[in-house]
Amino acid sequence: MAVDNLISRKKDCYPTSDFFESYLRRYGRIVDSPIDYQDLLRYTNSIPMYDERGDDTLWSTVFYANNEHEEVHDHLKRAYAILKADGDMSITRHLYIDRVDLCMYGNTLPFRIRIVNHLNDNHDYFYVKRIDANRIYGLELEHILSPNRINYFISGETIVEEHIIGIPAEAFMSENRPASRFDEVRLAKEFVKFNERVFVRLLGDMHSGNFVIDITRDFEKWHYRMRPIDFDQQSHHYRKEVYLPHYFHQNTPFIQIGQKTLAPENVLQYQTEERALIANRVRVSHGRFRNLMSVMTEDIISTDDNVRRLRNQLAEHYHCDDFRHCLTMGEMVQTSINLVLAASKPATIPLKEIHSAQEVKEGKV
Question: N or C: which end of the chain has fewer CB within 10 A?
């Protein structure tokens, strides 16, 4: 069975526990905001959106009644000010809400808001979604364990997230595919690292429609970074392959480039590098990862059957029976990261081998 077919159904949304809310409040993720997801559902009409080729984007632009239009847009601008400027409304002086779109395909039925500066027509996007504990754990783990920073806040039963900039992976491979072998190597290297990042922290459903590629010019060539944009399948599914992007048929173009350009030794090297980077991020998180795990390991964000089935697969994959004792998805994430930490210890230099610059200069060492 294809991995894609296993997650064709929408998962249930899990509420945030009191302990998780305490963690989120401690790190400034919970704020008072006038925006409420339920308010955005009061639209009176909608029209489907199509791309430049006439294909359905799975988004629909929604419209509100005249007596609610101004209030909804005002609340959205306030939410944007909280997201971008800690609530300073002065930044919205020249901004207006251009469009509110709804995705009926997404697990949390997200709203995407396009906000425009009327002085220069520059625009930005942000998202309003329903609370789902899996998604919030995914956002936090991305913030702590990846090279990316995630900006979002929670108000009541609503999540407000900033737009993650990048080219959708599907569009990238059809329109921006690397032309040189050197760039292909860099892209393949990043896919290996991306594959490792999401598997280590058990982020599922990373097919090419759920991540973007951020491109940076680097001297003569390009640097690529893959970033998840959908976190709904964080630590929920029962099958190991769901957490490995290379099992999704949509990602076949990336696999083919990797097979063409990377030797097995390269793949192992990049996997080792990424695990070492993850370990370092945990060490410099100043206890934030530990605090997150103290909550996540006790939280229920999947079914008992999913936990039992996945823990056995991970035990076989890692040849580690510690997974078989895990009772929650959070415990499996913690066990996975513990393996990374154990295998990647920072090098230490014995004090007797540390010499002063003066000793070196005088030739004493």
Answer: N
